[in-house]
Amino acid sequence: MVFMTEISAVLSDKSVRIFEGPLVYANDFAEAERKAKEMNKDLMVVGEYYMAEKILFEDELGTL
Fold first, then answer.
1. pLDDT-above-90 percentage for the chain
2. 44: Cβ contacts below 8 Å, ≥ 6 apart
3. Quick one: which of 38, 52, 31, 43 has its CA closest to 5?
4. Cβ count near 25 (within 10 Å)
5. What is the distance between the alpha carbons of residues 13 and 64, in angstroms, rounded to a whole number?
6. 40 or 55, higher pLDDT
7. In this structure, are residues 23 and 3 in contact, taking their beta carbons and an 8 Å threshold?
8. Can you tell me the mean pLDDT for 12-37?
9. Burial of 36 by CB count in 10 Å (0-12 exposed, 13-18 middle, 19+ buried)?
10. What is the rounded CA–CA span in Å between residue 44 and residue 50?
11. E strands along 11-58, which residues?
12. pLDDT tens digits for 3-12?
């Protein structure tokens, strides 16, 4: 499974922005969170990443 991550950053004007983080490959959500924290303590796992091919062909939903 592939999971998406995000990271918050404080800019020079003191505003907070959220940026995309790296994709994390793991067997489940808990493992993804553990791997993300090893990469950077501020990374947050926000969900599972689904590729268009999986949605269109494996699940046969054709929603895209």
1. 73
2. 5, 6, 7, 8, 21, 36
3. 43
4. 12
5. 39
6. 40
7. yes
8. 95
9. buried
10. 18
11. 16-20, 24-25, 44-48
12. 999 999 999 9
Query: In which residue are the tokens 């494996």 written?
Result: 58
Place of tokens 């991550």: 5
C-alpha dist (Å) from residue 12 to 9, 40, 42: 10, 21, 18
Joined tokens for residue 46: 């926000």
DSSP code, position 23: -
Identity of the amino acid at 48: E
Average predicted confidence (pLDDT) for the chain = 86
Enter the tokens of residue 60: 């046969």
